[in-house]
UniProtKB/TrEMBL annotation:
Database matches in SUPFAM superfamilies: Nucleotide-diphospho-sugar transferases, Trimeric LpxA-like enzymes
Compartments, as annotated in UniProt: Cytoplasm
Name under which the protein is recorded: Nucleotidyl transferase domain-containing protein
Pfam families referenced in this protein's UniProt entry, alphabetically: Hexapep (PF00132), NTP_transferase (PF00483)
Main localization of the protein described in the UniProt heading: cytoplasm
Pathway(s) the chain acts in: Nucleotide-sugar biosynthesis; UDP-N-acetyl-alpha-D-glucosamine biosynthesis; UDP-N-acetyl-alpha-D-glucosamine from N-acetyl-alpha-D-glucosamine 1-phosphate: step 1/1; Nucleotide-sugar biosynthesis; UDP-N-acetyl-alpha-D-glucosamine biosynthesis; N-acetyl-alpha-D-glucosamine 1-phosphate from alpha-D-glucosamine 6-phosphate (route II): step 2/2
GO BP term, pick one: regulation of cell shape
Annotated Gene3D superfamilies: Hexapeptide repeat proteins, Spore Coat Polysaccharide Biosynthesis Protein SpsA, Chain A
Cofactors, names only: Mg(2+)
GO cellular component, one term: cytoplasm
Domain Nucleotidyl transferase residues, every copy: 6-136
């Protein structure tokens, strides 16, 4: 975040911060984040997720009234905090001026000796600014890609989304688990995609066609 300060320092407005290793965020979720931020007139708004297994994620810590008190990274959590299932998938909308004032104060005072953007929230809250955290992120959107195994999981989710949109628009996919379709492909209504079909690139398939099986 500090790397872009020289480009945004004089900008009056909001700064969206997301993680580069989280490719599954949906436009609908970002829209909800912007709408909530505007409605609340908050200094910071973050979209959270609730996971059955929150291991590896920063936990959202709230007070008895439900107000966010901070975010504790997984490696720094107490045994009690590890039981929190509301996590931070790192989708933030900041008031730009308040953001850069806060990140200047962040120090690597943690187990990993790293600079955590989440620590900036503690400074913002302590300064009396309004911070809002609301659950808007689906569990699958919180998946980060930091290994080839995680990339495989994310790719399957993206493929499911691509195929679902095509099916919602009148394309029949006989066996989605054994079909791969590029997001750039255009396929007409009432076309049938048979099993073991691989459609790559900016392919255009008209209406009422039949592709496959075992087609490339």
């Amino acid at each position: 975040v500090l790397c872009c300060r020289e480009h945004l320092n004089d900008f009056e407005g909001e700064t969206l911060v997301v993680c580069g290793d989280g490719p599954l965020i949906r436009a609908e979720t970002l829209k909800a984040l912007f709408e909530r931020h505007e409605a609340e007139h908050s200094a910071v708004t973050l979209a959270t997720a609730v996971l059955d297994d929150p291991t590896g994620y920063g936990r959202i810590v709230r007070d008895a009234g439900g107000n966010i008190q901070g975010i504790v990274e997984d490696s720094d959590c107490s045994s009690e905090q590890r039981g929190i299932c509301e996590i931070n998938p790192s989708y933030y909308l900041f008031n730009n001026k308040i953001l850069f004032e806060a990140v200047e104060k962040v120090r690597p005072d943690n187990v990993k000796d790293e600079y955590y953007l989440t620590d900036a929230l503690s400074f913002i809250i302590a300064a009396g600014h309004k911070v809002v955290a609301f659950t808007a992120v689906r569990p699958e959107e919180a998946i980060g890609v930091n290994s080839r195994a995680q990339l495989s999981v994310a790719s399957k989710i993206m493929q499911r989304r691509i195929q679902r949109e095509l099916m919602d628009n009148g394309v029949t996919i006989v066996d989605p688990d054994n079909t791969w379709i590029d997001i750039r492909a255009q396929i007409g209504q009432d076309t049938v995609i048979e099993p073991f079909t691989y459609i790559h690139g900016e392919v255009k398939i008209g209406q009422g066609c039949r592709v496959g099986p075992f087609a490339y």
